[in-house]
Design goal:
Blueprint: E1 5-6, E2 8-12, H1 14-17, H2 27-37, E3 41-42, E4 46-49, H3 55-65, E5 73-76, H4 80-84, H5 89-106, E6 114-117, H6 126-129, H7 135-155, E7 159-161, H8 164-167, H9 186-204
Length: 205
């Protein structure tokens, strides 16, 4: 067993906190568990995330948390609520860039220890299908937000993991949907954690 203690900060919204699943089943906890299985001594994730948050609300919460600690691993997944509320792509780009810089600062300036995750597509869930919104419009808007977060992430030299395609499998596999019909199940969170695992292991080992 490798004996480093790696601290983990997860920044986001409902997809990070794991709305409608047990805390230990959200993707940060499942990722930490997998990293420990890989011989990396990763502590319990510190999560700043709440269902419904946009980029600006996450920024406010980070300021209010006033964390002084630096982390060996930071993940960032944010933007679905910007899309849901019809907020502008211009605002999202600016605030996402600021959040990405904040994530890098939390990693003590080490970009290699920051991992951005794409926004899942809620339009394929039962809630999305019954929302009265057009599924293709939701998908294209999610893609537009993801194009921005990917572009800014790559420009900053930070790792990017796409989980959007995986989330769309929920259209035909209801086991991937949580009991609330809107969020994702522990099984989906496990897949997201597995998607992140190789890139994180490569850096931390």
């Amino acid at each position: 067993m490798t004996e480093h203690k790696i601290s983990y900060l997860a920044l986001g919204d409902s997809y990070t906190i794991g709305e409608s699943v047990a805390m230990e089943s959200n993707f940060p906890y499942q990722l930490a568990a997998k990293l420990n299985e890989e011989g990396l001594d990763v502590g319990q994730p510190h999560i700043i995330a709440t269902t419904g948050w946009t980029t600006s609300e996450l920024q406010t919460a980070i300021k209010e948390a006033a964390l002084k600690q630096k982390f060996g691993l930071v993940t960032l997944l944010i933007g679905v609520n910007n899309q849901y509320r019809g907020e502008s792509l211009v605002t999202y780009r600016r605030e996402f860039k600021e959040l990405l810089q904040t994530a890098i600062d939390f990693a003590d300036g080490n970009k290699a220890h920051v991992f951005v995750v794409s926004i899942p597509d809620w339009g394929v869930t039962p809630y999305g299908l019954n929302s009265g919104r057009d599924q293709q419009t939701i998908a294209s808007e999610i893609d537009a937000f993801n194009a921005i977060n990917k572009e800014e992430t790559i420009a900053m030299g930070v790792s990017y993991t796409d989980i959007t395609a995986a989330s769309r499998k929920a259209l035909s596999d209801r086991d991937l949907v949580a009991t609330d019909g809107l969020h994702y199940s522990a099984k989906m969170h496990a897949e997201w954690g597995a998607s992140l695992l190789p890139a994180v292991v490569k850096i931390l080992k």
